Amino acid sequence: GQQLNQSPQSMFIQEGEDVSMNCTSSSIFNTWLWYKQDPGEGPVLLIALYKAGELTSNGRLTAQFGITRKDSFLNISASIPSDVGIYFCAGLDRQGAQKLVFGQGTRLTINP
Amino acid sequence: DVKVTQSSRYLVKRTGEKVFLECVQDMDHENMFWYRQDPGLGLRLIYFSYDVKMKEKGDIPEGYSVSREKKERFSLILESASTNQTSMYLCASSFGLVKTTDTQYFGPGTRLTVL
C-alpha cells in the first residue's frame, strides 16, 4: 500500500533544543495529521491540517501543510523531557476510502 | 472527549487459538479501523468499517477477520493465531464522510503475544 516517507527515523537531542521532522509523499493528500505515541499507549492527535499552505500551532508545536499537498513538517520548540516518544505523520485521502496513510515514525529521545 | 477503549492491554495466546480483540467508541463515529504496529513498519491497516455490518480490507487482512454488529463496537478476530501475529494492535474511529473533522482517534492498544 501507500506509504509516507518520514524523516528522520530517530533523533537524540538535548533538552531545550528545537526539533524538526517532516513527511513527504508521491501522492496528494487532503488532510495531514501529526500524532504522538508514548510507550505502551495509542497515538494521540497533536495537530490536524486541512488546507494546503496552512500553518497551525499547538503550544510549542507548529505544523505546516505543504503547498504541493505532498508534504508536511512538524517543529517542536524548546524541547522538554515529556516530548519523548514516537511522532507519526499521517495523510488522509478523502477520495473513496477515508483511509489514513502513516509515516514510519520519528523516535525522539531527549538527554536532560 | 472522544473515548476509544480496547478490551485488553496485554494478551498472551497460544498458536492455533482463536483470538478476539474488542474495541468500543463512545462518540457515535461511523468509521472504525484496526491497525497493527510493528517496529520499523509503522502502523498498517488490517480492516476498516464504514457502518454496521460493513467491512473493507486494509493493506494486510490475511489471517484476520472483523465483525461490526453494533455501531460502537468493532471486533478483530484471529481465526488461528500464529507467532507472526505477535504485535501491538490499535483500534481507531472517526466521523463519516460528511464530516470535515475526519481525524482518527486511537485506543490505548492491545499488545498480543502468540507463543
List the defining traits of the structure above.
heterodimer, A: 112 residues, mainly beta, 6-stranded mixed beta sheet, 5-stranded antiparallel beta sheet, 11 strands, B: 115 residues, 7-stranded mixed beta sheet, 4-stranded antiparallel beta sheet, 52% strand
What's a concise summary of this model?
The complex is a heterodimer of chains A (112) and B (115). Chain A has 112 residues and is mostly beta strands.
Please provide a written account of the structure.
The complex is a heterodimer of chains A (112) and B (115). In chain A, a hairpin with a 2-residue loop joins strand 6 (55-58) and strand 7 (61-65). By secondary structure, chain A is mostly beta strands. Chain A is globular and about 45 Å long. Chain A has no helices and eleven strands. The model of chain A has no long low-confidence stretch (mean pLDDT 90). The N and C termini of chain A lie far apart (39 Å). Chain B is mainly beta. Chain B is globular. The relative contact order of chain B is 0.33. The model of chain B has no long low-confidence stretch (mean pLDDT 90). Chains A and B meet through strand 4, strand 5 and strand 9 of A and strand 5, strand 9 and strand 10 of B.
List the helices and strands and how they pair.
The complex is a heterodimer of chains A (112) and B (115).
Chain A: E1 5-7, E2 10-14, E3 19-24, E4 31-37, E5 44-49, E6 55-58, E7 61-65, E8 71-76, E9 85-92, E10 100-102, E11 106-111
Parallel strand pairs in A: 2-11
Antiparallel strand pairs in A: 1-3, 3-8, 4-5, 4-9, 6-7, 7-8, 9-10, 9-11
Chain B: E1 4-6, E2 10-13, E3 19-25, E4 31-38, E5 42-49, E6 56-57, E7 64-70, E8 73-78, E9 87-94, E10 105-106, E11 110-114
Parallel strand pairs in B: 2-11
Antiparallel strand pairs in B: 1-3, 3-8, 4-5, 4-9, 5-6, 7-8, 9-10, 9-11
